[in-house]
Design a protein that fits this description.
The complex is a heterodimer of chains A (258) and B (290). Chain A has 258 residues and is of the alpha/beta class. Chain A has 9 helices and 9 strands. In chain A, a hairpin with a 2-residue loop joins strand 4 and strand 5. The radius of gyration of chain A is 26 Å and the shape is elongated. With 290 residues, chain B is of the alpha/beta class. Chain B folds into 2 domains: 2-122, Glutathione S-transferase Yfyf (Class Pi), Chain A, domain 2; 140-288, Rossmann fold (3-Layer(aba) Sandwich). Helix content of chain B is 50%, strand content 10%. The longest helix of chain B is centred in the C-terminal third of the chain and has 18 residues, at 201-218. Chain B is globular. Chains A and B meet through helix 6, helix 7, helix 8 and helix 9 of A and helix 1, helix 2, helix 3 and helix 4 of B.
């Protein structure tokens, strides 16, 4: 009967402080009444998160009454998790899901807030593969973070170095996919040429000389002759979502993969 | 307003300036009211771009059409069949008002609007429709050669109610009226293999290009004429590559407008025909002796 001594503590962890546990004669009706008292619907949660995070909340979705998805930038992860855990005394960290999307690793931090599941979504570019450890906010995150590190190779800054899943000396990352985007190899040179010069072929000086020899202007009146026209092309590509779908880096002016 | 706006595309100015020179000289000689479209982008290329990202394809094509309208063009004249397909398909897609509104919402952020007033036409079609009798009068040095025309697949884009062979018949009649003998070689509808080259070069060369060239040679063709820049590239580059399989054809390949320019008296030296990777200068020398 030793475990009976742990009863109050177990009840507090599982049911939350202030819960009228069955052992105290509350019964099932009391449990439902308790949940009604502490629970928050998705819209209310979303409203509070919008207020707490402001522009850091890049997207807030409430597909059902008990589900909230919050998308933030990688650098705002800590603020977002802190805001979600701060929604209620009963907020409980559940787990992290990791999804390898080819170019990015998507991390989904699931938190139960009085019966409504809030998921904080971030995308870590595979070029970086580093994100902040949140175990100082939710100690239970340590296990899943170590698991993700072992299986995907993602580094959690501040996490203790011991492996959880794979044996020492085993450095493979079994769930990590190759760095690949949506474009098939045959389409990649075309996409880069189109985004780089708005033209599907390369331009050589020899051709420009030949053009002049024929009495033609060295450069035809294409978009590539005008920097502002080239910017227009890149804006259009961004506007229709091509740069994101194809994994084109507008700053480096190339695809993120070869 | 200007009657014709010429959409040069990418291959013509940067791979085949000889075709651009021929276009300008022919239109100048005809006294056509034309301008070269300015600020344009790749059409965009109708195979990979449209298959990989139809939204980007339609947006860039719509921008090109909008530029033509802004520059006061009535008809956008397209010398390359690939560009023609891309721009014509976009024109057709944008007849749908809802789609046009969606595209214009994005274009308007950059100060453009596509109203749907410009009409896309291929160059050979324009030369036949508007200038045929004048061209026949202008022929001073007939292009006396046996010609196999490759009717590019992209040109099979009839307007509603139009005969699917209309553009091809016009190309054939145009070439014939320049003094050439147009041969039938049975594989007219056979693709040259350019799209397949992107995924399987050997199949493209041995199973598409080689049979086509063989049937052309079998009927005694002295050259290939085609209005598609991708097909010209396939015929020229492909012939060089077929040598590694022990096949040699040495078949000159020309754009119809080059043939027209030569027939109406433009000097071969003014066209820069040596940029071709097939023996076009040798053919021209044989016909004209210079």
């Amino acid at each position: 009967m030793r475990f009976l001594r742990w009863g109050p503590l177990v009840r507090q962890v599982l049911l939350g402080p202030g819960h009228p546990g069955h052992a105290q004669g509350g019964g099932a009706g009391a449990h439902e009444a308790y949940l009604r008292g502490v629970s928050m619907r998705a819209e209310e949660v979303a409203g509070k998160l919008r207020e707490a995070l402001g522009p850091k909340a890049l997207r807030l979705e409430t597909p059902t009454e008990r589900r909230v998805f919050l998308t933030v930038a990688v650098e705002d992860l800590e603020d977002a998790v802190r805001a979600v855990l701060g929604l209620s005394r009963e907020a409980r960290f559940m787990t992290i899901s990791a999804v390898d999307e080819g170019l990015d690793l998507e991390l989904l931090y699931h938190v139960d807030v009085g019966g409504t599941v809030v998921t904080v979504r971030i995308k870590v570019p595979k070029e970086e593969m580093e994100v902040l450890d949140i175990s100082h906010l939710a100690p239970a995150a340590e296990f899943i973070e170590r698991e993700i590190r072992d299986l995907f190779g993602l580094e959690f800054v501040g996490l203790k170095p011991e492996k959880l899943y794979t044996p020492e000396g085993y450095e493979e990352k079994p769930l990590k996919k190759p760095m690949e985007g949506a474009l098939p190899p045959q389409a990649r040179p075309m996409a880069e040429a189109l985004m780089g010069s708005a033209c599907s072929v390369s331009v050589s000086r020899a051709v420009m000389r030949k053009r002049q020899d024929l009495g033609l202007p060295a450069m035809p009146p294409m978009a590539m002759a005008k920097p502002e026209a080239l910017e227009e092309v890149r804006s259009l590509a961004e506007e229709v979502g091509f740069t994101e779908r194809a994994g084109y880096d507008l700053e480096k002016k190339r695809l993120r993969y070869r | 307003m200007v009657k014709y706006g010429v959409f040069l595309g990418c291959f013509i100015p940067f791979r085949y300036p000889c075709v651009e020179a021929a276009i300008r000289k022919v239109l100048d000689a005809l006294g056509a009211d034309y301008t070269i479209l300015a600020g344009y982008t790749c059409c965009p290329e109708p195979m990979l771009t449209r298959l990989v990202d139809p939204d980007l394809w339609l947006m860039l094509a719509a921008r090109n059409l909008a530029l033509a309208e802004e520059q006061g063009v009535e008809e956008l004249v397209v010398p390359c069949c690939g560009c023609y397909e891309s721009l014509y398909e976009a024109e057709h897609a944008l007849e749908d008002e809802e789609k046009r509104d969606q595209v214009n919402q994005v274009l308007s952020k950059l100060g453009h609007e596509y109203k749907g007033t410009v009409r896309v036409e291929c160059l050979t079609g324009i030369l036949y429709r508007d200038f045929m009798s004048k061209l026949e009068e202008m022929v001073s040095r007939p292009f006396r050669a046996r010609v196999a025309i490759h009717y590019c697949c992209h040109l099979f884009r009839p307007r509603p109610g139009e005969d699917i062979w209309l553009k091809h018949d016009r190309s054939r009649d145009l070439v014939r009226s320049m003094g050439a003998e147009v041969l039938r070689y049975k594989l007219e509808r056979f693709c040259c293999g350019f799209p397949a080259f992107q995924v399987d070069p050997e199949f493209s060369l041995r199973e598409r290009l080689a049979p086509k060239l063989a049937s052309m040679r079998a009927v005694g063709a002295e050259c290939v004429v085609t209005a598609c820049m991708a097909c010209i590239t396939q015929f020229e580059r492909g012939q060089v590559m077929l040598r590694r399989y022990g096949m040699r054809y040495d078949m000159p390949v020309l754009h119809p407008v080059e043939l027209v320019a030569l027939a109406i008296g433009v000097e071969p030296g003014e066209l820069g025909l040596e940029v071709h990777r097939s023996p076009v200068p040798q053919l021209v020398k044989r016909i004209y002796g210079s």
